[in-house]
Amino acid sequence: MAFPLQAQTQEKEIEKVISSLFDGMKTKNPELVEAAFHPQASMQTVVKGENGATLGSNSVRDFINRIATTPADTQMDERILRYDIKIDGDMASAWTPYEFYVNGAFSHHGVNSFQLIRTAEGWKITYVIDTRHRK
């Protein structure tokens, strides 16, 4: 178990990695986005359906390519409302409610659930799943 100061430091490091992902998205910097992810990471989203939810999957590479090719006049801004981080050794989980804006206009909101591991290069996102709500 980590001491309180060590846990706070690790939580700040995890927040920084997640924040850098969204900074990279906002500034259309694919290198910054890629640096947040572990090479074997995966992404999914919960797709609400009439008969229950299904999973939508997206490769991290496709996500990075979409960021890199976003039109210059399109501004994407995912605003994290808070972080709820749990850590056990070299594994962490972060629950992050968010609001998403496109060109300053509200688009949707939901929650990201991140799984991370601590590597030799620092904390890396290994998995993210999110929800998306229009209202």
Query: Taking all residues together, what is the mean pLDDT?
Result: 94
Low-confidence parts: none
Give the C-alpha Rg.
Answer: 15 Å
- Please report the number of helical segments: 3
Question: How would you summarize what this structure contains?
Answer:
This protein has three helices and seven strands; from the N terminus they run ααββαβββββ.
Q: What would you say this structure looks like, in words?
A:
By secondary structure, the chain is α+β, with helices and mostly antiparallel strands. Helices cover 30% and strands 46% of the residues. The chain contains 3 helices and 7 strands. Strands 1, 2, 3, 4, 5, 6 and 7 form a 7-stranded mixed beta sheet that branches. α1 runs antiparallel to α2. The longest helix is centred in the first third of the chain and has 24 residues, at 4-27. It is globular and about 40 Å long. The N and C termini lie far apart (40 Å).
SSE arrangement:
Layout: H1 4-27, H2 30-36, E1 37-47, E2 54-58, H3 60-68, E3 76-80, E4 84-88, E5 91-102, E6 105-119, E7 122-130
Parallel strand pairs: 1-7
Antiparallel strand pairs: 1-2, 3-5, 4-5, 5-6, 6-7
Helix pairs in contact: 1-2, 2-3
Can you give keywords for this protein?
alpha+beta; seven-stranded mixed beta sheet; 135 residues
